[in-house]
Amino acid sequence: MRVTNSEGAASDRYERADESRDAMSARFPTIDSVVDNLREVGYYANRRLATAVFLALKLNRPLLLEGEPGVGKTELAKALAKMLQRSLTRLQCYDGLEQREAVYEWNYAAQLLHIRAAEAAGKGGGSEATLYDSRYLLRRPLLQALQAPTPGTVLLIDEVDRADEPFEAFLLEYLGEYQVTIPELGTIKAEVPPITILTGNRTRELSDAVKRRCLYQWLDFPDAQRELSIILQLVPETSEVLGERIASFARHLREARGTTDFHRVPGVAETVEWARALNALGIVELDPDIVVDTAGVLFKDPDDINGLTRQRVEGFLQASGAFAR
Ligand SMILES: Nc1ncnc2c1ncn2[C@@H]1O[C@H](COP(=O)(O)OP(=O)(O)O)[C@@H](O)[C@H]1O
Ligand SMILES: [Mg+2]
To answer: Is 181 in the same domain as 33?
Structure first.
């Protein structure tokens, strides 16, 4: 474990960070190479997102992705880990998330045993230094990521907007310097900075301080062509014609949201699931009845399901037919 502030260790660390950055630049020399390599691991990125990824790798900066549910934020972190052949370390955020679940906590039971053993041996309760030994440290995702062996890990801090503001403030040290400070142990800094992806659904505005430390990218739903590629990849039994209809139908649903009362429009996960369902039902072409009957795959809200009337579906089908090649 590297817990230090000494100059020699620090320069050694920066050299390693430089090395890993240089290796990264050699492997992914252009934005196109990022697009291609992501596609090879099953992720379809547009150029804007690939540019953000390229810069995050090159500049060694955390990347904050915001967008609606189901646009591929979490999936990007998984794909990056595959692309870089690194492990994925995931910190799922939620209301009430505390540092001890995110970073570390002390193994009190083991510390207690240590005290008892020391007492039994007639050595008193053991000194504080031995009690707060790294043996008794339970490492949670952030610390695991900082201490991951070469080649390092991809750290996904998922749905960071669900955590509360104090936790967000706590993240600043990590995001700015890839380090955390543990009162009993000192500062723990990454030897190889984790490739860090934060995601958020904008349930609340993140602080400027977090945004300033990250590169930022807003993710939209994929265009119909990219969504078709995703569907065909994940549900290969789908015919190209049906896949096209699904993708353009979904696109029209999403575009119509401004003029309808849908609470939440389907994400990519839902369209993929819909393709699976339609195949399971032996459907080769969309018609209003089948869309109405399977609305529960696309929507998860009773009002939205009821709102997808036969008449509305006909309108969407007609409009989306015009989009099919
Ligand atoms: N660009 C993409 N390339 C490949 N698969 C995608 C893409 N976008 C979304 N998906 C698929 O959609 C699903 C939902 O995406 P996810 O990353 O969970 O959404 P988010 O985290 O934005 O809510 C994923 O499991 C993945 O199968
Ligand atoms: Mg997600």
So the answer is: yes
Task: For residue 250, give the nearest of 276, 227, 282 by alpha carbon.
Answer: 227
pLDDT digits (tens, 9 = 90+) for 286-320: 999 999 999 999 999 999 999 899 999 998 898 87
Q: For residue 64, what pLDDT is reported?
A: 98
Contact 72, 83 (CB under 8 A): no
DSSP tag of 3: B
Q: What is the largest CA-CA distance in the chain?
A: 85
Nearest alpha carbon, ligand 1 atom 4: 43
Cβ neighbour number for residue 237 with a 10 Å cutoff: 10
Same domain assignment for residues 188 and 261:
no
Q: 160 with 197: CB under 8 angstroms? A: no
Question: Residue 309 domain-assigned?
Answer: yes
d(CA 140, CA 147): 11
Nearest to 157 by CA among 187, 197, 121, 120: 197
Which residue's CA is minimally distant from atom 27 of ligand 1? 269
Ligand 1 atom, smallest distance to 68 CA: 22
Range of the domain at 230: 224-321
